[in-house]
Design a protein that fits this description.
Distance between the termini: 37 Å
Radius of gyration: 26 Å
Structural class: alpha+beta
CATH superfamily of one domain: YVTN repeat-like/Quinoprotein amine dehydrogenase
CATH topology of one domain: Methylamine Dehydrogenase, Chain H
Strand content: 25-35%
CATH class of one domain: Mainly Beta
Number of strands: 32
Strand order of the largest sheet: 1-32-31-30
Helix content: 25-40%
């Protein structure tokens, strides 16, 4: 972060009181603060794991819920326990929320006993008990615009809505996921958009995250009740539980096709936490069994692996490597069988030279690549890409580093970078070839073969290179593999949308919604999320400048949002960090996990030179977490017992012959 003189801003804030909010937002969380973040205090009072934390709106109270079935309200600024009460639950508490506009008097809890309780803190009494769920309640959500209303998500697959103005002690089902995904689906988390409370995001079993328009759902049900023929339906006149347009799905484009492989390795994909950015334009998801993903709700994009249209584009629809229809701009020609490069040897515009300081960053990245420091190379290329987003070479180089590192999702990010590089420079030879390799690694074997054939036609001098021959052999071996053919063809539907083992439980409506899913904007790697299903990831800073997430290794990770670069790792628990809740207006963070304490973090004075909680080897911690995520359950158990796993590597076998420090001949020897 560039150095800044804040004197003028301080004076402006004093003279114009209206500038105070802008000042606070701009300097709320800054890079120097992140670099000095350290442990301030430990709040002791619980006797079990602390599974949930919640700040009040002002930020002067912090509530916690625990396996001990108690909730505690703290004064975090003075490290004092203000109130402790037994909630009446008979099992672990998983969620705690202050009810908006209640003067911080009403607290809501959800627990593993399938119950939702409402408490009056002034008299330390439970005033409402709801027992409508039939499985563990994992999350509670509230909305400022609806002060008497809240929602719950539970492992019975239901999202329920509560209105404390009603006399009834029951709730209503807002969304029933079992109608779409079968009886085994479990809802794990939910959140309401802070800027438009009509939108509710839900995370559940599987890789898809769902965004619902609550207003449309209610209007649809009112119209059904008012319709004279509401109770009379024929076999063909099936009433949809949700109206068209009321739901929108989001998914990391590579995950659906990876499901069979993950299931075979007993690796579960489940959204453990969802949250909106402060301005409501972005959705952050901690995907259990995978990485952290950020989805842009304004500038949406389809998953690249979904872009397999059933109609051929005419040659006139592709100009300068960009498709002019359907809003797709991939730099390649998509047709009925997959990917095709634009015809002919196009003459792209000359590459714009980088400014000297970015050229230095690129050279540093190339040197890191040559030393097989893949993550360091990726972070340097990402830093340069943020400053020069229209430089094809940077995307091509970063794609090469992703392909060498081979962490979960790296080949898909490499594919995205290849497509971006080709759209910027249709003559980018290496990006064309790497695209074919990425498609193959992502199990799009037929598309990879066609992409490779088109590459040979576009660059005939490379048609018989060792790299092309090796990829050709890999593709043909996969095409003739009986197991691959059986996996591709069974079920009668696209592999990216099927539910393995329970395809009959997926409704047609669900298939359509999945087909219309949107892809992620950013991906954040380094943490591990496989052991618990309540692990959070959050925006940090009023302008959402940073991303924070807990991890199975007892650390929590902090990334720059825009570059996705990891900037800080701190040891937050002896076992697992599950909860991270940033203060609403200060650079102040509350965390909890398996330890029966709440830890508070803020920027430490510069005079404090030692910080024993800092994980210095962030790269080593990230690699260990990638191994942990790919280990089988027995290996994870041994790792938790202190044994070292040596059978899996973090990626990047082979030499650095794929480095792109010079834009010459293709030297992509498959590893």
């Amino acid at each position: 972060m560039a150095k800044a003189n804040i004197t003028r801003d301080i004076i402006h804030r004093q003279i114009k009181e209206r500038g105070a909010l802008g000042f606070e937002r701009h300097y709320h969380v800054t890079d120097p603060f992140i670099r000095r973040l350290g442990l301030e205090a430990e709040l002791q009072g619980h006797s079990g794991c602390v599974n949930c934390l919640e700040w009040n709106e002002k930020g002067d109270l912090l509530a916690s819920g625990s396996d001990d079935q108690h909730t505690i309200v703290w004064d975090p600024l003075h490290h004092k326990k203000l109130l402790s009460m037994h909630t009446g639950h008979t099992a672990n508490i998983f969620s705690v929320k202050f009810l908006p506009h209640s003067g911080d008097r009403i607290l809501i809890t959800g627990a593993a006993d399938s119950k939702v309780h409402v408490h009056d803190l002034t008299v330390k009494e439970t005033v409402h008990m709801f027992g409508d769920h039939t499985n563990r309640v994992k999350r509670i959500a509230t909305a400022p615009m609806w002060p008497n209303t809240f929602w719950s998500a539970a492992e019975d697959g239901l999202i329920r809505q509560y209105d404390l103005r009603e006399n009834s002690k029951r709730s209503e089902v807002l969304i029933d996921l079992t109608e779409y995904c079968g009886q085994l689906v479990e809802a794990k988390c939910l959140t309401v958009n802070p800027q438009d409370n009509n939108y509710l995001a839900v995370g559940a079993s599987g890789p898809f995250v769902r965004l619902y328009d609550i207003r449309m759902i209610h209007n649809h049900r009112k119209s059904m009740k008012q319709s004279p023929s509401a109770g009379v339906h024929t076999f063909c006149d099936r009433q949809k539980p949700l109206p068209d347009g009321a739901a929108q799905y989001y998914v990391a484009g590579h995950l659906p096709v990876k499901l069979p492989d993950y299931n075979n390795r007993l690796r579960v994909l489940v959204a453990t936490y969802v949250t909106f950015s402060p301005d409501g334009t972005e959705l952050l998801v901690n995907m259990g069994g995978e990485q952290v993903y950020l989805f842009d709700l304004t500038y949406k994009q389809r998953p690249y692996t979904f872009l397999l249209p059933k109609k051929c584009h005419t040659s006139g629809e592709v100009q300068n490597g960009k498709t002019s229809t359907n809003g797709v701009s991939n730099g390649i020609h998509l047709h009925s069988n997959g990917f095709r490069l634009s015809e002919g040897r196009a003459h792209g515009s000359p590459q714009v030279e980088l400014p000297p300081y970015l050229e230095r960053i690129k050279q540093q990245a190339n040197e890191a690549f040559a030393c097989q420091l893949w993550t360091q190379a990726i972070q340097l290329y990402s830093k340069a890409v943020q400053k020069a987003p229209n430089n094809a070479m940077l995307y091509g180089n970063r794609a090469a580093a992703y392909m060498k590192r081979k962490w979960d999702g790296d080949h898909y990010d490499a594919l995205r970078d290849c497509l971006k590089a080709i759209s910027l420079n249709p003559c980018h030879l290496k990006a064309h070839f790497r695209l074919a390799r990425c498609l193959f690694e992502l199990k799009y074997v037929a598309e990879a073969l066609e992409c490779l054939d088109d590459f040979k036609g576009k660059f005939p001098e490379q048609a018989h290179s060792s790299a092309c021959d090796a990829l050709d052999r890999d593709i043909n071996a996969a095409l003739f593999s009986k197991s691959d053919n059986a996996e591709d063809k069974k079920g009668g539907g696209p592999i990216r949308l099927r539910a393995t083992g329970r395809k009959d439980s997926i409704s047609e409506d669900e298939m359509v919604l999945r087909e219309r899913s949107y892809d992620y904007k950013f991906r954040y790697c380094g943490h591990c999320n496989t052991t618990t299903d309540i692990k959070e990831a959050n925006f940090f800073g009023s302008n959402a400048q940073y991303i924070v997430s807990g991890s199975d290794d007892g650390s929590f990770f902090i990334w720059e949002k825009e570059t996705t670069n990891l900037v800080r790792v701190l040891q937050g628990d002896e076992s697992i960090v599950n909860c991270l809740q940033p203060h609403p207006s200060y650079c102040f963070l509350a965390t909890s996990g398996i330890d029966p304490v709440v830890r508070l973090w803020n920027p430490r004075p510069e005079s404090e030179t030692l910080n024993g909680r800092v994980v210095v080897d962030m790269e080593g911690a990230s690699q260990a977490n990638q191994r942990r995520m790919n280990a089988d359950p027995l290996e994870v158990m041994l790792l938790n017992m202190g044994y070292r796993i040596t059978g899996l590597t973090s990626g990047g076998a082979g030499g650095s012959d794929d480095e792109d420090s010079s834009e010459g001949q293709v030297q992509c020897r498959p590893s």
